[in-house]
Amino acid sequence: MYTNCHTYYSLRYGTFSEIELLELAQQKNIKQLALTDINSTSACLSIIKNAPNYNIDVSVGVDFRNGTKQQYVVIAKDNIGFQNINEFLTTHLHRKEEFPELCPNLKNCFVIYPFEKVLELEKKKFSANEFIGISIVSLRKLLFSRYKHYNNLIIQQPVSFRNQNDYNAHRLLRAIDLNILLSKLPETEQGSKTDKMVSKDELLSIFEPFPKAIENTVYLFENSNVHFSFNNNRENQNQQCYLASKQEDYTYLRKLVFDNVAYRYPEAGDTVFQRIEKELKAIKEMDFVSYFLINWDLLQYAKSKNYPYIGRGSGANSIVAYIIGITNVDPIELDLYFERFINVYRSSPPDFDLDFSWRDRDDITHYIFNRFKNTALMGTYVTFKFRAVVRELGKVFGLPKAEIDSFLKGNNTDTKNDEYIQLIVKYGKLIQGFPNYLSVHSGGILITKKPINYYTATFMPPKGFQTVQIDMNIAEDVGIFKFDILAQRGLSKIKECLEIINYNQPDVKVADMDTVSKFKSDPAINNMLKTGDCMGVFYVESPAMRALMTKLETQDYLGLVAASSIIRPGVTNGGMKDEYIIRHKFPEKRKNGHPVLLEILKETYGVMVYQEDVLKVAHYFAGLDLGEADILRRGMSGKSRSNKEIRAIEKKFKDNCIKKGYSKKLIEEIWDQVSAFAGYAFAKGHSASYAVESYQSLYLKKYFPLEFMVAVLNNGGGFYSIETYVQEIKMHGGIVEKPCINNSFSETIIQNKTIYLGFQLIKDLEVKAIIKVLESRSTFGIFESFDDFIERVPISLEQLIILIRIDAFRFTRLDKHQIMWEAHLKVLKKTSDVSAPKLFQSRSISFKLPEITTNNLIDAYDEMELIGFPLNGYFNLIEKDVVKNILAKDIPLFENKQITIFGKLITLKGTNTAKGDRMNFGTFIDFKGTIFDTVHFPNIAQKYTVRANGVYLITGKVVNDLGYYSVVVDFIKFQKLLPDPRLSNVNNSDKNMFI
Fold this sequence. Notes:
By secondary structure, this protein is α/β, with parallel strands linked by helices. The longest helix has 20 residues, at 684-703. A hairpin with a 7-residue loop joins strand 12 (458-459) and strand 13. It is globular and about 95 Å long. The protein contains 41 helices and 22 strands.
């Protein structure tokens, strides 16, 4: 009976979810309602899915508004009407146009004009599908209007709030949206307190004098039914055919496999062909053929453009995907679990996460949109977080920022604003979790069999790819499965490294990056894993991975695959990481595992490491069927939203274990391990895909270290700072030069073994200034002198001084302070010269300048300011404490002993202990360039602050944790820098001349 209901998907207006709307209707004995969010169809599919659980018939549509002014409500009669509504909404959202005063003729739709709007319309003629909406409040006005006897009246009681708290939250949301004080919120920008739901009997009683309005309302609901199938009954809504028919698709896929099998398996035997037939049969029966072919198509385009890529996800368990080139992971070699990839209980296709270079992904996306008809990006909702809401509400109530900051830091000092703080906390908790704004999913792309607007409206983000108003959860529920097109920088490093090798060492032959088997069997590469020599290499360069690989003595592909998953929080949180390491290093400890688990998980010594291990344990240990096991896995990975479903599986898991005779302690222990995964474990194929990319990078780093590190610099570095990668270049014999006017480019380049840092690394140097320099050099050749540069490049004095301070004009062999004097004089003269035309060129005037010289310390300070670090390192700049100290390479010689060592800070990571105390893990480098790690327990972390970039004196005890050495810090002290000589013995007014 309610034709105009809102949820919190009426962004920064509504105050409860679509589920809470259904609960409210159930409480009020309402059997029919229409969800009509403001300029949004985000919640429509969800409410259609959930309404049967509440025995409520729902209709769906949109409340079209310009700002908060309601124009009309449009409700779909059927799915075609819903598509028409979405198309109309989409057009205006894309163009950012206001909605017209009169609704266009949208077929298969009902249109309701609010009574107040009708009063503004002159001689509006209503067609059979158009109504005048009457709210409880507008009934009084209706009695005195010429519309009271019209036959097209309909009940339009808005529902936006449940109670006063909702209304208060609504007003706060409106103030947040408008960025104004609550006291300044106009009435025109908010809803009415009366926009609430009353019971069916009360509503009918109120409208009893207008039986036609009741009759029309009943008629509307009886004739509006948008239908979709969900979950187990859903249809596959993705594009159904790659070619003309499903049979053609299958024939083509089969041909692709058998045409390419010899490339992957030169001596393929029965094992390979049996696996191929098993997979092809399942792919066909599950109707996933087009899904495979579309992914293959995307990668054919990538190959044609020479774009590197990585195929990962559960699809990496597929031999078909491996053979046709979607992935680079051999499932036979790794014994990848087929049922993790596809099983008869699985209604969603396997995940193919396709990683491309961050430079290439937009072009891939353009290709998809041009290649396939019904395409859009997946949407996602960014929700209000509590701290952010508190800050916003603080502004709405007019509280000082400092007071809100203090409150968020936990300072509960009584203030005159305590009452407001209490309100902020109350409504902050209420608003927390509300959708705040629509955004774009990190990589999901939809390719549907019907037009996108059949399912939802879309909006247009800045990059220009239409994006749906629904998220991945409801999309999957209705049968739309995303293609994951992701971006990463590791692939860019590989691609660019190959390009750099090509120009720096053109005569050298580089291995084909697809011949990963050669890299896996290279002892020199495997030794890099064992010793943690992985700086710049994808994810294995992190301190945590270096430590883990050292403990495991990782020296082969399978070991790296395991380490890639063991490092994940789910394995660590369950205590499985340490247990795996112990059983790996000490075979006699493997007997500690339960015999059943040891049999199921032979490769990982009875320890759950991969996502598919949950399937195996649930199926073989607890006796769940594969369908139930997959529900558990999806719940574990955060893809199931039904806690009730997971609780039911948990009960059956434990009941089955009891029947099998397992002890209660063992059951709880195994269940805790399963639960600990909590969405953080990798599928084995996923880990293997990452390991493949790591081997490709390791090969380049081993045999082309300088080119590889230049590629790392040009692609944003990685886990560490630019300074750390520059140090790595030096460790490999590279000569690093500051940016140079005649040799540098925007990005860092290499000439033989000399590396010229790129102009883009210089802080505050504008892109347009870089372009001017490079264009002049490209057109007219290198610069002969500073005067030549001044004449050729139109550049501001401020930008020029930046280049001078970084010593970019050192080719002139002039001191940079002398050049700076000349810059002031000549640039200012040049500026004044262009103010009026001159018939004759005036003679240059030479000035006798004072002798001012730079030195290494001055250069270092300029480098720290302009590129973030001194090129020759911090060790030459410190007032070093005189103490007996050791080098990092000698740390293992002092096991369980106190040492003192100097270290330049690379990174410091904080984490909370089980008690909630903060502790730190540090990574440092000694003056020889060797890395070492530190542990700062809570008492030390609290006592000694480690914040500034620089060198520290560290005293602590050397500990050996399964072969991995670190220093447990007892004392740490920052080493002061030598002062900038330009700031010594000068007064403040003179200091500006050096800046």
